[in-house]
Write a structure and sequence with these properties.
The chain is α/β, with parallel strands linked by helices. It has 4 domains: 88 residues, Fumarate Reductase Iron-sulfur Protein, Chain B, domain 2, CATH 1.10.1060.10; 49 residues, no CATH class; 126 residues, Glutathione S-transferase Yfyf (Class Pi), Chain A, domain 2 (Up-down Bundle), CATH 1.20.1050; 129 residues, Rossmann fold (3-Layer(aba) Sandwich). The strands form 2 sheets. A 5-stranded mixed β-sheet has the order 1-3-2-4-5. Strands 7-6-8-9 form a 4-stranded parallel β-sheet, sandwiched between helices. Strand 8, helix 22 and strand 9 form a beta-alpha-beta unit. Helix 21 crosses helix 22. The radius of gyration is 22 Å and the shape is globular.
Length: 428
């Protein structure tokens, strides 16, 4: 007896799906296609799969879901696409449909529903959960763990700072330019507290009062990217309400993945008549640190004299592609180091971090990590600058694997703060 044909569904915006003309210009920008050469693991191939699921021409088998799971959601295809396909929106809708109907393995359910959804978005829980992992690493016991667990523990920084940014930090510059809100983030606040402090100091020095509202919560990026759109919407509403109470000129974020989601609250809540307008107003104020401060930093005289080491820059996917911010970070780095900035081959190809991708898809993540590290080593750079916590953890771990312990990976805020401290020391 023949199996029943899959039913038609309506989870995709058909207009957005049909915008893809399958020209193939996206293929060279897709990290998974570059690695596998498999059409099903290219953007246009995945759109075929999405439409076939919607039309009832394809069943939701493990292999079908696998092709969608392997997508990093880096959205490099959007930058390459001449037709303006909104691939990110199509991917999120498809993943929401899959998560509601596809039965995953027990391991994947525990990983996604517990570790990723119930720990990472909550700083207090993450701080508690990381304690045992750090102890295992400190004692060298991680080498006896299974490869997946060993690599996961290996992502953690050797030292981490969870120092907290004050609720209010006054401007310290000669000219007071305004008042901004600050999104402290989940991973940033636990593993990169010093970077958050450096970010606020930069803003203060440039003349901005900084407000860090204590009631802010996770931006919802991990949930949105994994298909849990309802919870992402709830997180968005809570953040909108918190920041609406502040009298601010902009909302500053220093994590590229979070920034991309914050700027798309308008899309996330576009069907909600109560929140759609408020979401658009919120998103209109969101600015990545680099786009906010780049026009204010002097670019005429590099101030890194005496330091001859070369530097390279890795484009965090969600800064380079959804936000289209690539020039400003380079301008800021050149303001410090001049011609010591060397372009990284495949700079905007994903490093394999992609939110929680290096946990859910460790094999492909490791292949992309290796590819990124090989390109970094080709530049001869001793410092890699980037703008996203996941990228920093992923690249640092990759460099440790190959023994390149002399290559540093820094957030751009730390890089700029370090340069300012060096200049101040020289002048004093």
């Amino acid at each position: 007896m023949n199996a029943a044909a899959p039913a038609k569904t309506g989870f995709l915006d058909e207009t957005k799906a049909l915008a893809c003309v399958h020209c193939g210009l996206c293929l060279g920008s897709c990290p998974t296609y570059l690695e596998t050469g498999n059409e099903n693991e290219s953007p246009r191939g995945r759109i075929y799969i999405m439409r076939a699921l919607q039309d009832g021409r394809l069943s939701m088998t493990d292999s079908t879901v696998r092709h969608i799971d392997l997508c990093l959601g880096c959205r490099a295809c959007e930058t390459a696409c001449p037709s303006g396909v909104q691939y990110g929106a199509l991917l999120e809708s498809t993943r929401e449909y899959i998560e509601k109907r596809h039965e995953r393995s027990l391991f994947q359910r525990l990983l996604r529903r517990f570790a990723i959804e119930q720990i990472i978005p909550f700083p207090a829980r993450m701080r508690w959960a990381l304690g045992p992992a750090r102890l295992v690493r400190k004692l060298g016991l991680h080498q006896f763990l299974p490869k997946f667990a060993r690599d996961a523990v290996g992502l953690l920084p050797e030292s981490a700072s969870s120092v907290r940014v004050p609720e209010f930090s006054p401007a310290a510059g000669e000219e007071r330019r305004g008042r901004v809100g600050f999104v402290s983030g989940c991973v940033m606040s636990i593993l990169f507290g010093d970077t958050n402090v450096a970010t606020v100091r930069l803003l203060n020095k440039l003349g901005f009062d900084v407000v860090n509202p204590p009631k802010q919560i996770c931006c919802g990026a991990l949930d949105a990217h994994s298909g849990n759109l309802n919870r992402a919407r709830e997180f968005a509403k809570r953040n909108i309400a918190v920041f609406e109470e502040l009298n601010i000129d902009a909302i500053i974020i220093n994590a590229a993945g979070c920034g991309s989601t914050l700027k798309e609250y308008g899309h996330l809540l576009h069907d909600d008549p109560e929140w759609a307008g408020r979401a658009r107003s919120f998103s209109d104020k969101v600015m990545d640190l680099t786009e906010w401060i780049a026009p204010l930093i002097q670019k005429s005289k590099p101030n890194g004299e005496g330091d001859s080491d070369s530097i390279t820059y890795h484009d965090a996917c969600h800064l380079a592609h959804p936000q289209r911010i690539t020039v400003q970070p380079r301008d800021l780095i050149r303001a410090v180091c001049g011609d010591r900035l060397h372009e990284l081959p495949e700079s905007d190809v994903c490093c394999g971090s992609a939110g929680s991708y290096n946990l859910t898809e460790p094999e492909m993540a490791e292949r992309l990590q290796r590819r990124k590290v090989e390109n970094i080593l080709k530049t001869g750079a001793k410092t890699v600058v980037t703008t996203n916590p996941g990228c920093i953890l992923q690249i640092r771990a990759g460099l440790r694997k190959v023994g390149a312990l002399d290559v540093r990976v820094l957030h751009i805020a730390d890089f700029l703060q370090e340069s300012a401290a060096r200049v101040n020391a020289k002048e004093s």
